[in-house]
Amino acid sequence: MLWVDKYRPRILDKMIVHEEVAQNLKKLVSEQDCPHLLFYGPPGSGKKTLIMALLKEMFGPAAEKVKLEQKAWKIDAGTRTIELELAMLASTHHVELNPSDAGFQDRYIVQEIIKEMAKNRPIDSKGKKGFKVLVLNEVDKLSKEAQHSLRRTMEKYSASCRLILCCSSSSRVTEAVRSRCLNIRVNAPSAEEIVKVLEFIAKKESIQLPPEFAARIAVQSCRSLRRAILSFETCRVQQYPFVMNQAIPPMDWEQYVSEIASDIMKEQSPKRLFQVRGKIYELLVNCIPPEIILKVKLLSELLKKLDAELKHEVCHWAAYYEHRMRLGQKAIFHIEAFIAKFMSIYKEFLIATFG
Amino acid sequence: MICKSKPTKTQSKTSDSKEKLLEKEVQVSLLSKKTAAKYSQSSISSQKKKENFADLLTWTEKYRPKVPNDIVGNQSIVKQLHDWLAHWHDEFLHKKNKAISKKQPDGLAKKAVLISGTPGIGKSTSAMLVSQMLGFHVTEVNASDNRGKADAKIIKGVGGNTSNSIKELIGNEALSESKDWSKYAKSVLIMDEVDGMSAGDRGGVADLIASIKTTKIPIICICNDRYSQKLKSLVNYCMLLNFRKPTKQQMAKRLLQIAHAEGIEVNEIALEELAERVNGDMRMALNQLQYMSLSQSVIKYDDVRERLLSSAKDEDISPFTAVDKLFDFKGGRMRMDERIDLSMSDPDLVPLIVQENYINYRPASVGKDDNGIKRMNTIARAADSIGDGDIINVQIRRFRQWQLSQAGSLASSIIPAAFMHGNRETLEPGERNYNRFGGWLGKNSTLGKNLRLLEDAHIHILASQTSNVDRETLRIDYWSHLVKQLTDPLRIMPKDAAVQKVVEFMDTYSLSQEDLDTIVEISKFQGHPSPMDGIQPAVKAALTKAYKQGSSLRVVKTADLINLPGLKKAPKKRIAALLEPVETGLGEENDDALLENEEEGSNSEETDIAFNQTGDKKPQLDLLTDNRKGMEVQLDLKNEEGKSSGWKTTPASKARGSRSSEKGGRSGSSGSKRKR
Description:
A: alpha/beta, Rossmann fold, Zinc Finger, Delta Prime, domain 3, 53% helix, B: Rossmann fold, Helicase, Ruva Protein, domain 3, disordered C terminus
């Protein structure tokens, strides 16, 4: 088993990072009930871990016994019947699913599943909860319509189910939904916290981890604990005992994006743009989400190599095209437009500066 | 009606006897008989009356040919049709004769005929005229008739609708000798617009074919496109007659006669131009001529030209041609409506081809451009506009804002083309200097496939219950690590140990071999070595073998992947063989919990086996065994029968034994379920 999964804290008390949040959550559910919750925070900060631990706190070990179900929904939407298939993880007390997987029909899923859960309300006996918990992942990717229908059902069925929403950015969750939940921000762990976790793992695995090396891993992980642990394990596999200047291997796709970035910096021509398009396609086909390519990686790689005076403008355009990408459907068009824009700006700058 | 135009002319064309015959026919015929009959009578009477009546008719009706010889062009085909119809009864009804005279050419031996050709060149007219001339009673059914039940009036059929009456009509030749049919010697069925016939129309083509097989009257089918998919089966049962477009000279000649008859001054060149513009469609030519005659009595070449430029028939342009034209060096001179026409010729494909190729053009609008800055700027603006087009497209499709479609094609094709039009140049050595097909479609479908594979692997990982990641995180964070875990040992460690380690890892995450392929496949980047490189084929084979050996144990782990009944995807064979899907289908709360326990138990048991096999004391496995003990307690509480049937057996040392015990457990527990 990978270390990330192996050393994932299972109960709230064992949390190393977000200790305070964990304790608050514990107090929250000690009353045998809880409000709707919205966890938000960057990837790798521990939202899911907190949620699972919270569920365990609420329902005991039964919450851990989940079963995967590939459930088909038949939804009667007025004139037609919509058939949808969605994977969900369910225990006796909770159901977890990714409604945004249903694409633009997510609205029906949200309505239907909550209704169904309201129907099969567990019986309140032997200390069992009188409600079920529905964990919805990636609510920020839900369409506006789905979020609107969510807010109605949240109130209507609040007696029989609690929602735990999980997303990386609360800004894409509508105000209405946010105000109906207790918002819990899960920060990205600081570098020190990451080091702490790495040291904890090192101790358990009884390996020597030089503090400087741990710090380097923490820095390179961009404050994602998951990524830090994964690359820690990769390094362990690669070379042990650790040496001071050991390289921390980047992710395959990150490396590829860096190459693209340096391609763009080296030459700005139609020909290069065409080659870059091929590479971007390659990334997209390999299931790397376009937002991540554009926003998280490509931009930061470009910024690293850019002169200070251009940074502001380039950031502006990256944001501009990212927004358009969300409005549109064919991501490559917008990434390409960004690259073309960048090439044009950068080329102009180069010629103005160096003649 | 012909008589109206110029009696002298028609007489010159048709012999007296024919005229008489026609007169008779016209009176007899059901179709347009009233007007025709009235007209032929009135033609002898006063001129004024004629004039009044003529105003009511469009020219296409007024000058519809009255005898087969009047038809413009295709005379040989009309003759063929005539021969076929004339011999039909000898051929098919009086079999004795037929047996003797078997010298007939093959084409004539078919019971039906299929006339094809572009619209407006006289197919229906010829069929009608030939039938009438041979003294047939004509029943015309066209696609637009079929659906209505009111059509019963055409022939009073048994069930009151067309389909029944047709059946009756073709079935009962005898009828023609009796009852109200008696006054018609013979009948012919004309099926017009058969290519417009759909399944809703009396069983469509299949029914028509059945009719042809049994028919006792001749059937004439008419269509525009003989190669239509719908007619594939029909063509085998029909004699094929293809009407060709008449030449412009032929058409002009006829048009001239009509123009004279109507008192319009027009020269032959103008009419030839008209004939060319309408692309052989006589009906359209006449309509245009009549329309023009309303405003002017003298029609010149230029008038024709001007009028028809806008109303020219839409020609089919391939999206490539459209893109070529848009990006042409002289593309800047095109008018806006021409550009819209081009880009709308295929509003889905044209933008894709534009997007694929716009970088290849050296924009003509950019003059002197030393360092390529201007070109780069132009490309950026074009790319921007293409992005706009995509956004508009989303609005159109998702929110059904179809009124935006012109704006969409403007943004996605016309503006980029306006920026970039110029000479095309190649960007890669060896590339052909032609527009490529849009790459997006292919890439998108590959992406779809990969996402599906990724989702499969994702579900397997979720099913293993070791991890609870979402799909995106799985790809972004876990993926490269998984690749390393799965391939690195194979490269560096000795074969057996490596294989064992990898299989073990795959089992922990319940990855199947397909998932392994997926993981490798989705990690491939162009220009980077494949993760599988450097692994000996022997090692790969050993891996496959080792995995297959253990596969019987894995069944339970992936068992929860069984699809619920009523789903498209067929369950995987090995799962289906070992588990009755009913188990997951039946779903009481308690039973579900039980099932989970079962799975949980078997999972841990499996790891135990792995543990024993490796003999390698790892802390992670210890954790798992602890876990298992916890499980046992639970089972004791919940399922007493299950307990007895072997969950508690000490970790089996051999796969064989453990599997049987597992099976026992399964059957025991399902038995307990049934008791409840």
